[in-house]
Amino acid sequence: MTVHHSVFWGVKMKRKYVVMIGILLIMLCTFVTYTTGRKLTLKIPVDQAGKDVTAFDVNIDQEDEFVKLDSKLIHDGQMILTLNSVKEGKAYIDITADNYYYSQVVYVHRSGIITEGNFFGSARAGIVFPIAVIMYLVVVLWNVIIQYRKDMHISLYQYENIRNLGWIIYLIAIILGQINFLTSSSPINAVRSLINSASGFAVFALPAAFTVSVLVAVSNVVLMQREGTNWRNMLGLILGVLICAVTLFPLVLSEMLHRTTVVDVHDENGIAMYIEMAVTNSILTAVTYLECILIGTVILSVKSAKKIPAFDKDYIMILGCQIRPDGSLTPLLKGRTDRALEFADMQENNSGKKVIFVPSGGKGDDEAIAEGQAIHYYLLEKGVSEDRILTEDRSENTYENMKNSVELIKEKTSITEPKLAFSTTNYHVFRSGVLAEKQGIHAEGIGSRTKSYFYINAFIREFMATIYSEWKIHIRVILEMVFFIIIAVLAIYFSNNL
To answer: Residues 126-173: pLDDT tens digits?
Structure first.
């Protein structure tokens, strides 16, 4: 049976379940609100518990009889008023007593539902709205988790896995943010909580982002001292500063606007407040999304590097990199080769099966010999017999390492579907696996250690590669979120101004 999927902000999910549950929740909210919303209970603190209710004068200011007062009483320092709807309109409830005044606006909708405060304000049993939002987010989260598990079962090496994991983190943060609004009975507050929770993660994570930026800066200084000063070695510092700056910008802008008299962002009837709300939330939500993708990249990169392949491999490809001028291996390349040798010993000890090594890498303009040939010589020095080495010496990058190595293996082997592994540096395992999967090559990776001062910057580079590889999807996702925020802010604006 064909399973239809939809793409929800870059995440593939079962369309029928998500849509059906969303429709059911909307119907439930509509039914509960319609059947209970013709009455409204106002609870107003009066701070005069000892006074009798007759000491307060309740006046309903309305052009016609839109609502009528059903009952009033004082309990636990609160005046409790029950209103019944009569017909569509807007009324003001004024409560006065000695040195006391309170006013509230209520709306009677065409359906007879009464809302408090604004057009889409609190209604009786309106708590179903934030509950429904949480339930729907949980459904979406569950679908993403199921999709993530399915995709991971198919292959660890997919950028979609990073997106799914990023969305799992993102949705959990939003769901936790909704808990604070469970006492709200307003549909517009449910909408407001959604956009605030989405952007709030970036603010909440700012201290952590700042701390990480400092650590990355220290790491980058060491890296540049040892490896040279260039923009690649500063990526971690640049990204850390950028995240902090972009997170702080809307907060600083908002604070400045609230202090100035040039633009009035305090007036709920003016447009400036809502433009500032849309801009602030859009920027912070985009930062939150990218932070979640960054976290997903790090988690899956670490998972890929630590994963030990099944001990059934026929070939293990050793991905080349820069060699020394004399043709010997650099510590980085030696680490990759030693890791391959270590895995070969582990496999032989566990399953008795020997693996054939495929050193891969061509000759650069500044290299004495091909990288693959240099690895070949090193393997011989380590006691590997010539008949267990199959050298590929034409590749210029990781994509070609995979492609040319597999083509060579197919030429030399009689095995229909040889079991493959590859060895590279730990931070490079995931991206190498993705490049293999894109060519239909199924291979499991193992990662060798790298220098501690290089580790953080390396993961930042992998994150940049993740974003670059699917930049169209990430741009589309961010634009869709901004569109949702604009619609939400417009709903808040009209609720306050109708």
So the answer is: 788 888 888 888 888 988 898 899 999 999 999 999 999 999 998 988
Backbone dihedral angles phi then psi of residue 313, each to the nearest 5 degrees? -80, 140
Domain extent for 89: 39-112
Domain membership flag for residue 7:
no
> What's the pTM value of the predicted model, to 2 decimals?
0.82
**φ, ψ of residue 450 in degrees (nearest 5):** -130, 170
The residue whose two tokens read 């099966």 is 353
Domain tally for the chain? 3
Distance from C-alpha of 162 to C-alpha of 299, rounded to nearest angstrom: 9
Same domain, 399 and 361: yes
CA distance 33 to 26: 11
Q: Does 344 share its domain with 293?
A: no
Sheet holding 67-75, edge to edge: 39-45, 78-85, 67-75
**In terms of DSSP bridges, do strands 57-61 and 89-97 run parallel, antiparallel, or are they unpaired?**
antiparallel
DSSP secondary structure letters along 69-109? EEEEEEETTEEEEEEEE-SSEEEEEEEEETTEEEEEEEEE-
Where do we find the tokens 């969305």? 167
Q: Angle 216-474-174 (CA atoms, 0-180°, nearest 5)?
A: 75
Q: Same structural domain for residues 83 and 191?
A: no
Quick one: 144 and 285 in the same domain?
yes
Domain assignment present for residue 410? The answer is yes
Q: In this structure, are 67 and 140 located in the same domain?
A: no
Are residue 294 and residue 319 in the same domain, yes or no? Answer: no
Identity of the residue numbered 18: V
Is residue 316 within a helix (H) or strand (E), and if so which, with residue range? strand 315-319
Q: Are 64 and 34 in contact (CB under 8 A)?
A: no
Residues 225 and 330 occupy one common structural domain: no
Please give the helix or strand (H or E) that residue 466 lies within, else none: helix 452-469
Who wins on pLDDT, 200 or 293? 293
